[in-house]
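Possible regression after last week's pipeline update?

I re-ran a chain I had predicted before the update to compare outputs. Posting the input and the new output here so someone can diff against the archived version. Not blocking, just want to make sure nothing changed silently.
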Amino acid sequence: MKKSELFKDLAPQRQFSLNSGLSTPKLKNYSDYLLKKPILLTNQKIINFLSSGYISLTPTLPIEFHDRIFSKIDELIGNGKDEENPGNNILPLIPEFQLLFKDPIIHGALLSILGPNYMLHPHRYIHDNPPRSGGQAWHHDTYWGYLKKVRNHHPWWLMLMYMPQETPNDLGPTGILPGSQYLNKKIENPDDFEIPNSGPAGNCMIIHYDLWHHKMKNHTKSSRYMAKFEFVRRNKPSSITWSNKNSLKWKNPKTLIPYNLEPIWKNNWSWLTLKPLEYQNPKIGEIAQLCKQLKSPDKDHRLIAAGKINRFGPNSLSAIDPLEEALVDKHEPISLNASYALGSMGDMGVEALYNAIKIKDGPNETDPRLFFDEGQEWELGYVVRNAVHGLIVSGSNSLSTLIELSLNGDGLSRRYSAFAMGELEIKSKEIEEHLVNLCFDNDPFVRISAIESLGIRPSSPDSVKSICKVLENDIDDEIRSHAALALWRMEPSAKTISSLKIALYDGDRYVQAYALEALQRINTTESLNVMVEHLKTSRWCPITNKKNMF
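New output (post-update):
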């Protein structure tokens, strides 16, 4: 069989003949293709991704496949029919996308970054860039609701952007800002660093979910399509999941990045490689010189100084006071580097981070139910957010501080501290018990953070039971959806089936989708029967349309 024929009859439509009536061509066998070994990323590509937040990939699929996808998208939403965008129903209507996810290059990259058993998120969308469009404002995507889930520095969520047609810059591809995934505020002079997702038909870009991006101007008379899919990591890293042909020593990235955020990059590398950070011994007078540089009027000099001090960790305690001042620097990258540096300094660093949080923390003045794009707003609590990420770096040294903040903080610190406890790489029954209590807190922001934290920590009967209770009883759709997601990540047992069965008929689409994933993980006869009964009544028929209703 020729490669061009591989996908000829995938998802065939019923055909009518006067002689034979209705018939459906037999599907071909794709098993040999689908079972190809994934092509894993190299050390350097992982490093480049952690720093830049993106990786460009060309799948092995033939041009005929991409042409087919383009034709189907054009049929669905072409000629100004964007109001008919299928949104989350892309896969039933264009099931060929399943082959894209199984492509050895795409699957290999997702496996390398997210580890095994990652999840294809139920949210997906086809983006249309109409002819002569003016483009789109820079933004980073929200998490479907008003609660504004805390953004992750570690790569827990990825986004896949797929271009089914050849996409030159004039056609208006998606543009991204490399290295911006750790920033709440848009970088200065974004056009100087923009990288377009341009290239041949089938070009893909995998990005950190929080990377800033936008739709570029379309200067042509043709429409540009992009299909967006999201993927979620299930567990914290437990092994190396990429092609580790070289040593695991950190090497500087080989991509252009606006700001040097080496402390964050290295921390993520340590997280993925399971290797603790190694700190250097400073030369005589080196710390004093860097502290002086922290007070420079040049923000680039201050940024570099904060990053270099981080290399010395607990060997640079004399820099704590100037770093505490740098933590409130209005230039966000400096604040981030200073926070990570303080987090590496043990108890004294924790104290400095705590002091900054208490000074800058305050009531949340924004109506929590007022939706707005974080990409267009500068959150006043950036110091609190950055400082809490520093407390994550400090590990067990920060546990008592995080618990105290989650109980007695005023505003953002309670939400962020609940989130941080999930990221701590320590086993603690105290953390679990505290997070269980926070799952029922009066503040919905705190509840959603506590639930997420329980989902990424080792589960226990008590934590699973509490999440099930939230899933059945919480009045907030977003919180129930995160409870279902947490159950998928935990070790759901037969005892959770009754709660998940209820969730299958929840009014929120994501509650339903996560519950279905969790039931699949249980993988018992009972759980599979519950899934089948649900699917019998909710199945989407991709063949039915306005012209063919019977």
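Follow-up from reviewer: compared with the archived run. Strands lie at 15-17, 21-23, 54-57, 119-129, 157-162, 174-176, 195-196, 204-208, 213-215, 224-232. Marking as no regression found.
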